[in-house]
Amino acid sequence: MPNQPNVQHPTEEPRVLVPSTDKGIKSIITVSWIDRKVENLQVWAQGRLWYLYLPLAIWMGYIAIRTLQNADYRSFIEGLNLGIHETGHLLFFWAGSDLMAAGGTITQLAAPLITIWQFSRQKDYFAVAFALSWLGTNLTGIARYMADARQQILPMVSYAPGPASHDWAYLLSRMHILEQDTIIASVIRTCRNLILVVSALAGAYLVWEMFIQQFRKTGTP
């Protein structure tokens, strides 16, 4: 019987499972991005005194809960928001009737958004969460004001002499969508609710991380 050639079969290499679709790759990238963000938050929480941030986190949660219970809930910060709104009209007095009317809302949104941007650059994550909550309170006032565009039963405030005009009655009439005032206001309130809940949860999580980091380091809260 003829000798059979000695054939060596290559050993099978272990298989590396890789996503076969773009969806799988995107899922891995998303999870990796979330993990990095959570790690950044945990590093930020190290060495910080949780009890100094706790009152603000409680306030953020309180505002979120009260607003979910009452869509037009007015917090004590409403006075600040109104002052910023009226200052915005003064800042845009030179820009014509349309921008002057919109200037109050533009400034009212710009103040918390600029604050969020600034604290994001500084990587002060709790301050970002708090500024988000502040943005939510501004959206409450904006939605309330917009929903009143046709009825105009809210008391008006103005720095200018003479009777105050209703910003959103004027602006929505100019855009020919005055009859949509309550619908647009409802959309704004939905966005506001999401922002307030996210900011409150973020604040609570950061305080918890501060507490855990301190407890692990010292064994005491």
TrEMBL record:
The chain crosses the membrane at residues 50-69, 90-119, 125-147, 194-212. It comes from the Bacteria. The keyword Transmembrane applies. Keywords: Membrane, Transmembrane, Transmembrane helix. This is Uncharacterized protein. The lineage of its organism: Bacteria, Candidatus Wirthbacteria.
